[in-house]
Protein backbone atom coordinates (compact mmCIF):
# COMPACT_ATOMS: atom_id res chain seq x y z
CA UNK A 1 0.00 0.00 0.00
CA UNK A 2 1.29 3.47 -0.93
CA UNK A 3 1.34 6.40 1.48
CA UNK A 4 0.36 9.34 -0.73
CA UNK A 5 -1.36 11.41 1.92
CA UNK A 6 0.91 11.99 4.91
CA UNK A 7 2.22 15.29 3.51
CA UNK A 8 -1.26 16.77 3.08
CA UNK A 9 -2.87 15.03 6.07
CA UNK A 10 -4.30 18.26 7.53
CA UNK A 11 -5.77 19.28 4.18
CA UNK A 12 -7.15 15.77 3.73
CA UNK A 13 -8.82 16.01 7.13
CA UNK A 14 -10.26 19.47 6.48
CA UNK A 15 -11.28 19.37 2.83
CA UNK A 16 -12.14 15.80 1.83
CA UNK A 17 -15.91 15.15 1.61
CA UNK A 18 -17.43 13.25 4.50
CA UNK A 19 -19.78 10.28 4.13
CA UNK A 20 -23.38 11.03 5.06
CA UNK A 21 -25.29 9.11 7.71
CA UNK A 22 -27.73 8.17 4.93
CA UNK A 23 -24.94 6.12 3.32
CA UNK A 24 -23.63 4.76 6.62
CA UNK A 25 -27.18 3.72 7.65
CA UNK A 26 -27.53 1.81 4.39
CA UNK A 27 -24.21 0.01 4.86
CA UNK A 28 -24.93 -0.90 8.47
CA UNK A 29 -28.33 -2.29 7.46
CA UNK A 30 -26.46 -5.01 5.52
CA UNK A 31 -24.64 -6.23 8.65
CA UNK A 32 -26.26 -8.93 10.80
CA UNK A 33 -24.32 -8.43 14.05
CA UNK A 34 -22.97 -5.04 15.15
CA UNK A 35 -20.31 -5.93 17.67
CA UNK A 36 -16.91 -5.33 16.11
CA UNK A 37 -15.87 -3.36 12.99
CA UNK A 38 -12.53 -2.57 11.35
CA UNK A 39 -12.07 0.53 9.18
CA UNK A 40 -8.96 -0.02 7.06
CA UNK A 41 -6.90 2.94 5.77
CA UNK A 42 -9.06 5.12 7.99
CA UNK A 43 -7.24 8.37 7.18
CA UNK A 44 -8.70 10.96 9.57
CA UNK A 45 -11.35 8.53 10.84
CA UNK A 46 -14.35 9.90 8.94
CA UNK A 47 -16.00 6.52 8.54
CA UNK A 48 -14.80 5.10 11.86
CA UNK A 49 -16.33 8.07 13.64
CA UNK A 50 -19.79 7.36 12.22
CA UNK A 51 -19.54 3.59 12.65
CA UNK A 52 -18.84 4.18 16.33
CA UNK A 53 -22.50 5.16 16.71
CA UNK A 54 -23.59 1.66 15.64
CA UNK A 55 -20.90 -0.79 16.80
CA UNK A 56 -19.63 -1.67 20.27
CA UNK A 57 -15.96 -1.84 19.27
CA UNK A 58 -14.41 0.11 16.41
CA UNK A 59 -10.84 -0.47 15.26
CA UNK A 60 -9.26 1.72 12.61
CA UNK A 61 -5.87 1.40 10.92
CA UNK A 62 -3.70 3.53 8.68
CA UNK A 63 -0.04 3.48 7.63
CA UNK A 64 0.28 7.25 8.08
CA UNK A 65 1.10 8.64 11.52
CA UNK A 66 0.20 12.11 10.24
CA UNK A 67 -3.26 10.96 9.22
CA UNK A 68 -3.81 9.29 12.59
CA UNK A 69 -2.74 12.46 14.41
CA UNK A 70 -5.70 14.18 12.73
CA UNK A 71 -8.15 11.35 13.39
CA UNK A 72 -11.47 11.93 15.15
CA UNK A 73 -11.45 10.57 18.72
CA UNK A 74 -14.22 8.59 20.39
CA UNK A 75 -14.21 6.32 23.43
CA UNK A 76 -15.00 3.15 21.48
CA UNK A 77 -12.51 3.77 18.63
CA UNK A 78 -9.02 2.26 18.80
CA UNK A 79 -6.56 3.55 16.18
CA UNK A 80 -3.51 1.55 15.13
CA UNK A 81 -0.71 2.27 12.68
CA UNK A 82 -0.76 -0.85 10.51
CA UNK A 83 -0.71 -1.87 6.88
CA UNK A 84 -4.02 -2.98 5.40
CA UNK A 85 -2.50 -6.22 4.11
CA UNK A 86 -0.89 -7.25 7.40
CA UNK A 87 -2.73 -6.56 10.66
CA UNK A 88 -2.36 -7.73 14.26
CA UNK A 89 -6.01 -8.65 14.78
CA UNK A 90 -7.40 -12.09 15.60
CA UNK A 91 -8.92 -14.56 13.17
CA UNK A 92 -12.69 -14.14 12.69
CA UNK A 93 -12.74 -10.99 14.81
CA UNK A 94 -14.94 -8.64 12.78
CA UNK A 95 -18.57 -8.41 11.75
CA UNK A 96 -17.73 -5.68 9.24
CA UNK A 97 -14.61 -4.42 7.46
CA UNK A 98 -14.78 -1.10 5.60
CA UNK A 99 -12.37 0.52 3.15
CA UNK A 100 -13.13 4.07 2.05
CA UNK A 101 -11.33 5.70 -0.89
CA UNK A 102 -8.26 3.50 -0.48
CA UNK A 103 -8.58 -0.01 -1.87
CA UNK A 104 -7.04 1.00 -5.20
CA UNK A 105 -3.71 1.46 -3.36
CA UNK A 106 -3.71 -2.09 -1.95
CA UNK A 107 -2.20 -5.36 -3.09
CA UNK A 108 -5.58 -6.94 -3.80
CA UNK A 109 -4.59 -10.58 -3.42
CA UNK A 110 -2.83 -10.13 -0.08
CA UNK A 111 -5.48 -7.77 1.28
CA UNK A 112 -8.36 -10.07 0.42
CA UNK A 113 -6.56 -12.96 2.06
CA UNK A 114 -6.30 -10.84 5.21
CA UNK A 115 -9.98 -9.88 4.98
CA UNK A 116 -10.93 -13.56 4.75
CA UNK A 117 -8.87 -14.24 7.87
CA UNK A 118 -10.34 -11.36 9.86
CA UNK A 119 -14.05 -11.58 9.01
CA UNK A 120 -16.46 -13.78 10.88
CA UNK A 121 -18.20 -16.41 8.70
CA UNK A 122 -21.26 -14.11 8.57
CA UNK A 123 -19.13 -10.98 8.13
CA UNK A 124 -19.40 -8.23 5.53
CA UNK A 125 -16.83 -6.32 3.48
CA UNK A 126 -17.69 -2.82 2.27
CA UNK A 127 -15.54 -1.04 -0.31
CA UNK A 128 -16.56 2.54 -0.86
CA UNK A 129 -15.32 5.85 -2.18
CA UNK A 130 -16.21 8.95 -4.13
CA UNK A 131 -15.86 9.22 -7.89
CA UNK A 132 -14.94 12.30 -9.89
CA UNK A 133 -17.08 15.19 -8.69
CA UNK A 134 -19.07 17.58 -10.86
CA UNK A 135 -19.98 21.23 -10.35
CA UNK A 136 -21.32 23.83 -12.76
CA UNK A 137 -20.53 23.53 -16.47
CA UNK A 138 -17.98 26.37 -16.58
CA UNK A 139 -16.02 25.19 -13.55
CA UNK A 140 -16.19 21.56 -14.70
CA UNK A 141 -14.40 22.45 -17.94
CA UNK A 142 -11.50 24.03 -16.03
CA UNK A 143 -11.29 21.30 -13.38
CA UNK A 144 -11.41 18.53 -16.00
CA UNK A 145 -8.64 20.30 -17.93
CA UNK A 146 -6.55 20.36 -14.76
CA UNK A 147 -7.38 16.74 -13.93
CA UNK A 148 -6.80 15.21 -17.36
CA UNK A 149 -4.37 17.48 -19.19
CA UNK A 150 -2.23 19.30 -16.63
CA UNK A 151 -2.13 16.50 -14.04
CA UNK A 152 -2.67 13.58 -16.42
CA UNK A 153 0.80 12.05 -16.13
CA UNK A 154 1.03 12.80 -12.39
CA UNK A 155 -1.74 10.45 -11.36
CA UNK A 156 -0.61 7.08 -10.02
CA UNK A 157 -1.57 4.11 -12.18
CA UNK A 158 -3.87 2.82 -9.46
CA UNK A 159 -6.10 5.89 -9.86
CA UNK A 160 -7.72 4.19 -12.87
CA UNK A 161 -9.82 2.06 -10.51
CA UNK A 162 -11.49 5.20 -9.15
CA UNK A 163 -12.07 6.53 -12.67
CA UNK A 164 -13.67 3.16 -13.46
CA UNK A 165 -15.96 3.54 -10.41
CA UNK A 166 -14.39 0.51 -8.67
CA UNK A 167 -16.21 -1.69 -11.17
CA UNK A 168 -12.94 -3.26 -12.37
CA UNK A 169 -11.34 -4.09 -9.02
CA UNK A 170 -11.11 -7.79 -8.18
CA UNK A 171 -13.90 -8.67 -5.73
CA UNK A 172 -13.83 -12.36 -4.75
CA UNK A 173 -16.83 -12.23 -2.43
CA UNK A 174 -20.52 -13.02 -2.62
CA UNK A 175 -21.64 -9.62 -3.83
CA UNK A 176 -24.79 -7.82 -2.74
CA UNK A 177 -26.53 -5.55 -5.24
CA UNK A 178 -26.49 -1.99 -3.90
CA UNK A 179 -28.50 1.18 -4.32
CA UNK A 180 -26.90 4.17 -6.01
CA UNK A 181 -26.01 7.25 -3.98
CA UNK A 182 -24.74 10.75 -4.61
CA UNK A 183 -23.77 13.41 -2.07
CA UNK A 184 -24.06 17.12 -2.71
CA UNK A 185 -22.18 19.87 -0.88
CA UNK A 186 -21.98 23.65 -1.08
CA UNK A 187 -18.36 24.76 -1.00
CA UNK A 188 -16.56 28.06 -0.74
CA UNK A 189 -13.86 28.69 -3.31
CA UNK A 190 -11.20 28.13 -0.64
CA UNK A 191 -12.72 24.74 0.16
CA UNK A 192 -12.66 23.80 -3.52
CA UNK A 193 -8.97 24.74 -3.74
CA UNK A 194 -8.22 22.83 -0.54
CA UNK A 195 -9.84 19.72 -1.93
CA UNK A 196 -7.88 19.93 -5.20
CA UNK A 197 -4.68 20.53 -3.23
CA UNK A 198 -5.32 17.25 -1.38
CA UNK A 199 -5.17 15.24 -4.61
CA UNK A 200 -2.14 12.95 -4.80
CA UNK A 201 -1.43 14.14 -8.36
CA UNK A 202 -1.37 17.77 -7.22
CA UNK A 203 1.24 16.91 -4.62
CA UNK A 204 3.28 14.91 -7.16
CA UNK A 205 3.23 17.94 -9.49
CA UNK A 206 4.32 20.32 -6.71
CA UNK A 207 7.13 18.00 -5.68
CA UNK A 208 8.48 17.76 -9.23
CA UNK A 209 7.95 21.35 -10.43
CA UNK A 210 8.05 23.45 -7.28
CA UNK A 211 4.77 25.18 -8.12
CA UNK A 212 1.08 24.53 -7.60
CA UNK A 213 -0.69 23.48 -10.83
CA UNK A 214 -3.95 25.00 -9.58
CA UNK A 215 -2.43 28.43 -10.16
CA UNK A 216 -2.65 27.74 -13.91
CA UNK A 217 -6.45 27.89 -13.78
CA UNK A 218 -7.05 29.69 -10.47
CA UNK A 219 -8.30 33.08 -11.69
CA UNK A 220 -10.65 31.63 -14.32
CA UNK A 221 -11.88 29.04 -11.83
CA UNK A 222 -12.55 31.68 -9.17
CA UNK A 223 -14.62 33.73 -11.62
CA UNK A 224 -16.68 30.73 -12.74
CA UNK A 225 -17.15 29.60 -9.14
CA UNK A 226 -18.41 32.97 -7.93
CA UNK A 227 -20.77 33.23 -10.89
CA UNK A 228 -22.49 29.90 -10.16
CA UNK A 229 -24.18 28.02 -7.30
CA UNK A 230 -20.98 26.66 -5.65
CA UNK A 231 -22.46 23.16 -5.44
CA UNK A 232 -20.43 19.97 -5.90
CA UNK A 233 -21.87 16.52 -6.49
CA UNK A 234 -20.00 13.28 -5.80
CA UNK A 235 -21.17 9.81 -6.93
CA UNK A 236 -20.61 7.15 -4.30
CA UNK A 237 -18.61 4.08 -5.34
CA UNK A 238 -19.91 1.08 -3.43
CA UNK A 239 -19.25 -2.68 -3.41
CA UNK A 240 -20.63 -4.89 -0.62
CA UNK A 241 -19.71 -8.54 -0.23
CA UNK A 242 -20.21 -11.47 2.11
CA UNK A 243 -17.90 -14.36 2.79
CA UNK A 244 -18.41 -17.07 0.16
CA UNK A 245 -20.01 -20.22 1.55
Outline of this structure?
The protein has 245 residues and is of the alpha/beta class. Helix content is 34%, strand content 22%. The model is unreliable at 2-9 (pLDDT under 50).
Jot down its keywords.
22% strand, single chain, eight-stranded mixed sheet, alpha/beta, globular, 245 residues
Share in β-strands? 15-25%
Distance between the termini: 28 Å
> Helix amount, in percent?
25-40%
How many DSSP helices? 10
Low-confidence stretches: 2-9
Give average pLDDT, whole number.
93
Spell the H/E element sequence.
HHEHEHEEHEHHEEHHHE
Fold blueprint:
Layout: H1 9-15, H2 21-28, E1 36-40, H3 46-51, E2 57-62, H4 65-69, E3 77-81, E4 94-100, H5 108-118, E5 119-130, H6 137-150, H7 160-163, E6 174-176, E7 182-186, H8 189-197, H9 200-209, H10 218-226, E8 231-242
Parallel strand pairs: 1-2, 1-4, 2-3, 4-5
Antiparallel strand pairs: 5-8, 6-8, 7-8
Helix pairs in contact: 1-8, 6-10
General description of the model:
The chain is an alpha/beta fold and 245 residues long. 34% of the residues lie in helices and 22% in strands. The protein is built from ten helices and eight strands. Strands 1, 2, 3, 4, 5, 6, 7 and 8 form an eight-stranded mixed sheet that branches. Helix 1 (9-15) packs across helix 8 and helix 6 runs antiparallel to helix 10 (218-226). The chain is globular, with a radius of gyration of 18 Å. The model is unreliable at 2-9 (pLDDT under 50).
